[in-house]
Structures are given as C-alpha cells and as structure tokens.
Amino acid sequence: MDAVGRRTVTVDDAQRTIASVVENLQRVVHAPEETLRLVVLCLVAEGHLIIEDLPGVGKTTLAKALARSLDVSFSRLQFTPDLLPSDVTGVNVFNQAQNEFEFRPGPVFANLLLVDEINRASPKTQSALLECMQERQVTIDGFSYELAPPFMVMATQNPIEYEGTYPLPEAQLDRFAMRVAIGYPTLADESRMLSEQTSGSPLETLEPVTNGQEVLALVAEAQAIFVEESVNRYVVALLRHTRADSRLYLGGSPRAGISIVRVAKARALADARDFLSPDDVKAVAEAVLSHRLIVAPEARAAGTTSLDLVRDALDKTPVPV
Fold first, then answer.
1. What is the CATH number of the domain that holds 119?
2. How many structural domains is the chain composed of?
3. What local confidence, expressed as pLDDT, does residue 224 receive?
4. Judging by DSSP bridges, how do beta strands 294-295 and 248-250 pair with one another?
5. Last residue of some domain: 140, 163, 198?
6. I want to staple 299 with a disulfide (CB 3.0 to 4.6 A). Which of 254, 261, 270, 304 is the partner?
C-alpha cells in the first residue's frame, strides 16, 4: 500500500493486468488489438476517449465491455437536442418530509460514463461535461460533489452524419486525451461475430479481470514512470512543429503535450518498463494529437487531414538518442 492506502503494483504486474483487460475486450469486440490497447492505456493515463466511427461497429459494446472487465459502475447517456445539463449532472429536489432540498445525482456519477452521439446535444448540455472531465467534480447550486475515481468519459460520434448536430468546440475536444476508430472487422472475425451474436450475447457472460482499486494502482505506477528531459523536449518539439505548420489553423496545445506524456507513460508500463522512450511518444501521438488540430481551409480543400500532418510532424522532428 502507498501513503494514501492504494495498492501498489510492480511493472510486471501492471503489464499482466493491462494485457488481461485487452484480452477480455477481444472476447466481445472484434477490433485491432492495438486499438483496444489504446483504450486501456487511456484509462491508465486518467484520460477521456472519443470513439469516432460508423454505426454498428461496436462503439457502445466496447464501453460496456470495458466496464464489465473492470467491475466498476457504468452509466450510459444518449445525447439528444432536448437533453438538459441537469439530465447529465443531477439536480436538487425539494424534500417535503424534511423541508429541505436534497441532491439527486445524475448519470455522470459513475466510474465509466458512455456518452452516445455527444455532438447531438446542445452546446449548453455538452458544456456540462467540462467540469466533470477536467476537475473530476460537479458543481450544483454552489456546492461541489466529487466524482469517485477511477472516472472516465467515453464519447461516441458518427463521422459521416452531421445534420442536426453541434460540433464539439476546440476547448472540449482538447479535454479528450485520445480519439480512436474501431473499423470494420476482418472477414473471419465478422463471420464469427454473426454466430456469437445470434446465439447469445458474449457481453452477458464477460467476467471482470480486475477492479477499480487495481486500476488506481496502475494509474499511480504509470505516473511514477521516469521521463528524461530529452524526451520532454521531443514532445515539445512535436507540438511546436504543428504550431508552425502553415497548413494548420490551430496546432497542439500544452495540454496536448501533457496527454501525450501521460498516455506514453501508460504504454511504457504496459511494456513492463519503468522509463519512457521516444518510441512510446511516437506510438501514441496520432491518437492523442489528431483530433486537437484544425487544418487550414486551403489544406483541407487539397485533401490534407490532421492525421497526415501529425505523421509529417513525427517524420520531421528529430528523435533524441
């Protein structure tokens, strides 16, 4: 146990735990192993995740499978245009018997919150998540309520249907540590999925492989990973390359650099290392950076994407040796 009573783990224990969670997710979600690994790394980095993909590829199932694998509380919110902020955070209700107001917690009071189609709610409702994601607390009528750790928001978006949606502002996008896509399964996986899903739901039989306390121990162990100054400077050089790129209207923020290092630390831990390498940074940079960058109109018209520019920055930024 550490000073605050959290269970401590070795890097080898951490590697086994992260691998077991990824393996458990694979029982239900037919997606590339690296994608599922990034989802778990986001959790260990205390980040929030956007899953942007086409309907029907398993975005909701992935979130549910992660919650079951961790044996933590789970809430699901379907964002719609008429959803109110109080539907997310909770509301004070007058109790006539006690002649006072009492707080009724909203769905956000869970360890894992799935926000389906986050861009379908109004900006006012979207902004209700900002304090939750950044401060891990909810403020109602002047009183703040802490959200129990671990806490993670997983939001889904449809990348092709934008009618009647409210695109997330840059400030909120920047608070999501990563964005991933599941993609269509391989022919063999999709064929196997038809048999699995039509003879019963694999999700219903999924058993936990760890718990919330062990996740907090992984978080603490990841935070303790050693980072040499040259690696920090490498991350800053990547960000400055994006800020100086004329094809980008908005480059990477300092918060983006913090997220890169946190997720890269989680990756080092998953590889049973107690130090960070530039390879860890390169492996997570695309997922952490691409959704934060705004491509200039001229470059966008030429078919350039933010992912292209992240890869260009990785190619052109000298790697420390």
1. 3.40.50.300
2. 2
3. 95
4. antiparallel
5. 198
6. 304
- Buried b / exposed e over 235-262, threshold 16 CB at 10 Å, is beebbebbeebebbeebbbeebbebbbb
- Tell me the two tokens of residue 23: 């393996």
State pLDDT tens for residues 64-101.
999 999 999 999 999 999 999 999 999 989 888 888 88
Strand segments (E) across 147-302: 152-157, 178-180, 248-250, 294-295
Q: What b-and-e string marks burial along 294-311, b requiring 16 or more CB atoms within 10 Å of the CB?
A: ebbeebeeeebebbebbb
> Domain residues for 50?
11-80+108-126+149-198
What is the pairing mode between strands 90-95 and 100-105? antiparallel
Q: Are residues 185 and 260 in the same domain?
A: no
Q: How many helices (H) and strands (E) does the chain have?
A: 14, 11
Q: Is residue 188 located within the same domain as residue 256?
A: no
For the segment 209-213, the average pLDDT, to the nearest whole number, is 95
